[in-house]
């Protein structure tokens, strides 16, 4: 289903990989955080969700297969994006 209709996967990855660090930057700027806290917040936002998110999707009766695919893809993409976001935040 993820291969046949990749729209949900694409938007989920876009939100997790790009939107979360941008929101973290906005929060850091809005709260006038110190540089160390701002970098830490952006790094945490750029990290993949992990397996706990899959549990919450299951408990909430969501699309577990999509959640697992997003976790795997985000973990693989983060190998490249996490150093980039960290360097950008620094």
Tags for this entry?
single chain, 90 residues, mainly alpha, 79% helix
Portion in helices: over 70%
The average pLDDT value, as a whole number, equals 87
Structural class: mainly alpha
- Give a short account of the largest sheet: none
User: What portion of the residues fall into strands of 2 or more residues?
Assistant: under 5%
Distance between the termini: 39 Å
Stretches with pLDDT under 50, minimum 5 residues: none
Radius of gyration: 14 Å
The beta-strand count equals: 0
How would you describe the overall organization of this protein?
It contains four helices and no strands. It is an all-alpha fold and 90 residues long. It has one domain. The longest helix has 26 residues, at 64-89. The chain is elongated and about 45 Å long. 14% of the residues are buried.
Layout of strands and helices, then pairs:
Blueprint: H1 7-30, H2 35-46, H3 51-59, H4 64-89
In short, what is this structure?
By secondary structure, this protein is an all-alpha fold. Helix content is about 80%, strand content about 0%. Helix 1 (about 5-30) runs antiparallel to helix 2 and helix 3 runs antiparallel to helix 4.
């Amino acid at each position: 289903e993820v291969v046949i209709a990749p729209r949900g996967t694409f938007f989920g990855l876009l939100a997790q990989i790009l939107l979360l660090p941008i929101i973290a930057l906005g929060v850091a700027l809005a709260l006038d955080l110190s540089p160390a806290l701002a970098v830490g917040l952006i790094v945490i936002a750029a990290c993949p969700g992990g397996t706990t998110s899959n549990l919450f999707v299951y408990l909430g009766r969501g699309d577990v297969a999509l959640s697992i695919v997003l976790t795997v893809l985000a973990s693989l993409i983060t190998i490249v994006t996490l150093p980039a976001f960290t360097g950008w935040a620094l």
